[in-house]
Write a structure and sequence with these properties.
By secondary structure, the protein is mostly beta strands. It has one helix at residues 8-19; strands at residues 36-43, 46-51, 60-67, 78-84, 117-119, 126-131, 138-144, 151-158, 165-170, 177-183, 189-197, 203-211, 214-215, 224-226, 230-235, 247-255, 259-266, 270-274, 284-289, 293-301, 308-316, 319-321, 328-331, 336-342, 350-356, 364-371, 378-383, 392-397, 402-408, 413-419, 425-427, 429-435, 439-442, 449-452, 455-464, 468-477, 480-487, 494-500. It is globular.
Length: 509
């Protein structure tokens, strides 16, 4: 008898640990001998993050901050770095003598690209910067102890011109589908979908645009090729002739995988990045609308042919209220719908909550938020987001101009917030906060003692109902209230892997 044993559980465990996105469910073994123990939570072993090209403006100044929170259960090995896409090896100029004459091989052949950012130790952020409009997209990989919870923030300040202001984005993991409600091809807006391919083979991508009357006619949005380890910015106005505001952009990857983000630049209202919204759902949460928002616009899209009917609530510091005149929103199937919420927060921080009526269907949605008036306006976006879950982190926080908003729509909750050491020095500190049901709180941040440079904020749910979070960065730019908002979804740094009681094997006679 020839016997060949293939351990299926071992293979599944390795797959889950590498991807970080696989959750394995134990089969019901009540009627047989083959059983699986309850799943164990293990750290992911490898993570990819991709950063879009920050700007083409010669006036752009971009800061990169990378951070990995310390995670129990890692093996103590690994590394994390970002390199320029396309094989280029240009790194931010730190002004050091060591950088002179050592730019690597720009052809992408032979000598490996020089890392732009390289994390040295979990729990300590690394920051660097670059100037001008020729900074490339970045491709990053973290392994071992650096993979669970790895986060990279790209923050760009543009002093003048279209899209002037503060633009921020969390560098994203590659995937095969993305939704961006809130984009536009209207006059005065210049919106690009930035696609970054981390792999050694080309990716093929379709981009669809949906407006108030349904899909916009386009033939050039199909079959867009993104070359290996490179980036491709796609101007939305070249995909359709219609000039329409408040679009939903759908990015679908036919082959391969990419990271995607939309850069929205406005002639009068500044600009920012739209990160991908959460997957279609009946209940959606938009945490951390600034207290001084002068205009808030909700853009929702219902995939498919069935209409959606949604209820709107605002979670304020004192509880949930229904916005007067915007109690509900009807979204026709396959079309976008908007709600002009005005200055909905009226001097207090808030979070918008969408819940379905009895006949609603899942939707995708995002908020466009404006601060300031007249020529002093600036724009940011808040996509619908996942809850903090076990842990979420955001990097590039500063000593001034950083606000963390927490909301618990369905019940009281408790979270632990840790401020890391600074990129240039300091000691980490931690605070615990209780968030009342149906409220939003701008919490008093636990700033690191002796802070130098940028730091990371890590939020961990300790008890109670789900919590949603966002971080706002602010800066004064010639009197303009420049700002950007990033949400804090669960970092998915741990993956459920079942424990085998008995080896599952295939026997070949």
């Amino acid at each position: 008898m020839n016997r060949q044993t293939l351990s299926l559980i071992a293979g599944a465990t390795a797959l889950a640990a590498v991807t970080g996105f696989a959750t394995l469910s134990a089969p019901d073994a009540s009627g047989g001998e083959t059983t699986v123990k309850a799943a164990a939570q293990l750290p992911v072993q490898r993570t990819s993050l991709l950063c879009p090209q920050p700007s083409t403006s010669d006036l752009a100044e971009t800061a990169y901050t990378a951070f990995t929170p310390a995670t129990e259960g890692t093996d103590g090995k690994g590394g994390a770095e970002l390199v320029a896409a396309g094989g280029a090896s240009t790194a931010p100029d730190t002004g050091g003598e060591d950088d002179k004459g050592d730019k690597g091989d720009d052809s992408g052949k032979g000598k490996a690209a020089k890392p732009v950012i390289e994390v040295k130790e979990p729990g300590k952020p690394v920051a660097d910067s670059t100037d001008g409009g020729d900074s490339p997209a970045l491709i990053g990989t973290a392994e071992g102890k650096f993979a669970p919870g790895w986060t990279v923030q790209e923050t760009t300040e543009v002093a003048a011109g279209t899209g002037r202001g503060l633009l921020g984005v969390n560098c994203a993991a590659p995937d095969t589908e993305f939704w961006f409600p809130g984009a536009s091809t209207a006059a005065g807006r210049t919106d690009y979908v930035h696609l970054v391919n981390p792999d050694d083979s080309a990716a093929v991508v379709d981009i669809e645009l949906f407006g108030k009357d349904g899909a916009l006619k386009s033939t050039v949005g199909d079959g867009i090729t993104v070359q290996p380890r490179s980036s491709e910015p796609v101007l939305l106005s070249t995909l359709a002739t219609a000039k329409e505001a408040d679009l939903a952009v759908h990015v679908n990857v036919r082959s391969g995988r990419v990271a995607a983000a939309v850069q929205a630049l406005d002639d009068k209202q500044g600009g920012d990045w739209l990160s991908a919204a959460a997957d279609p759902a009946g209940t959606l949460v938009f945490p951390g609308i600034p207290k001084d928002a002068t205009s808030v616009t909700l853009v929702a899209y219902a995939p498919g042919e069935t209409d959606a009917d949604l209820k709107l609530r605002l979670a304020s510091p004192n509880g949930s209220i229904t916005p007067a005149g915007n109690e509900t929103l009807h979204v026709k199937g396959g079309m976008t719908a908007t709600a002009d919420l005005g200055d909905i927060t009226r001097g207090e921080p808030g979070s918008l909550i969408l819940t379905p009526t009895g006949r609603s269907v899942p939707v995708v949605a995002g908020l466009r938020v404006v601060r300031g008036k007249g020529a002093g306006q600036e724009t940011a976006f808040i996509p619908a987001t996942r809850p903090v879950g076990a842990r979420a982190t955001v990097a590039d926080n500063r000593a001034k101009g950083t606000t963390l908003a927490l909301t618990a729509p369905t019940g009281e909750a408790e979270v632990k917030v840790t401020a890391s050491a600074g990129s240039g020095g300091g000691e980490a500190t931690t605070k615990t906060f209780k968030i009342k049901a149906g409220t939003t709180q701008n919490v008093d941040l636990p700033a690191p003692s002796g802070l130098k440079g940028a730091y990371a904020l890590t939020v961990e749910s300790t008890s109670g109902a789900p919590v949603y979070a966002s971080r706002t960065l602010e800066s004064k730019l010639d009197g303009i209230p420049a700002f950007t908002i990033q949400t804090l979804p669960d970092d998915r740094g741990m993956v459920a892997v079942p424990k085998a009681r008995q080896d599952l094997s295939i026997m070949q006679r």
